[in-house]
């Protein structure tokens, strides 16, 4: 999944500069569309055909998408390469990493911020059904599709705005609102509150998914955008790997769930990450008010 997403999100960056955020938002909206379909699809399939055939059907569904991507994805610019030993015809070495990118403090603080945010951003998505079940809120199982539907708009519309007012300028308020929403998540104890939370959080968190690569892309050369985004996503993966288990450990066992502790950890991670992104903006333009 990581290889597929990283490749798919980087290819359009080669073709767009002025409208890059909007283009990447449209691409990223595909994953939230899957987030609408697959929870409902898997729930129905498990009840009708069992686990085995449910996984096979979903697998064939995904295979179709991958085959289409195989024939449609391409890059405009050649990869960043080093050519050595020209006397013997030369050879090419693909540049998998570019640690010199971290000499740019704007990029460094941005990657740090994006990584911290990953530790907390997905906690409400993962534990939303647990929360609704433990509080006897109806319509359990449909909040995640609602959230992903809102996320589709949150990935496209902010991208349109970002190309006009600045990508980091656009993502910062959405991150701040996401952090606040995580802290108030345990207050949503009825159907209306949880639906409103799902819509708002889906929209603001969706902006993070689509604009993170667009923001990183402008903090360096277009020819090395894949390398820089790859390093960023690698470091972000540690947040995805450890963030939810830490939140789950804080949450505890059924019957003794510490929701405030879990949202306190997750919200703090998002807030710390947001501050780091703000510092990255300051380094990039020399002012917190500049356009970037």
Question: What this model shows, in words?
Answer:
- Residues 101-292 form the Major facilitator superfamily (MFS) profile domain.
- Pfam families: MFS_1 (PF07690).
- This protein is mostly helical and 292 residues long.
- The chain has a single domain (2-65, 99-285), classed as MFS general substrate transporter like domains (Growth Hormone, Chain: A, Up-down Bundle), CATH 1.20.1250.20.
- The protein has 9 helices and 2 strands, in the order H-H-E-E-H-H-H-H-H-H-H.
- It has helices at 2-10, 20-72, 105-120, 123-134, 143-165, 167-184, 191-217, 225-251, 259-285, and strands at residues 81-84, 91-94.
- Strand 1 (81-84) and strand 2 (91-94) form a beta hairpin.
- The longest helix has 53 residues, at 20-72.
- The two termini are 30 Å apart.
- The mean pLDDT is 84.
| The CATH topology | Growth Hormone, Chain: A
The CATH superfamily is identified as MFS general substrate transporter like domains
Looking at the overall shape, the CATH architecture is: Up-down Bundle
Helix content: over 70%
Number of domain units:
1
CA-CA gap between termini = 30 Å
List SSEs in N-to-C order.
Answer: HHEEHHHHHHH
Secondary structure class reads: mainly alpha
Strand percentage lies at under 5%
| Uncertain spans | none
Strand order of the largest sheet: 1-2
Helical stretch tally: 9
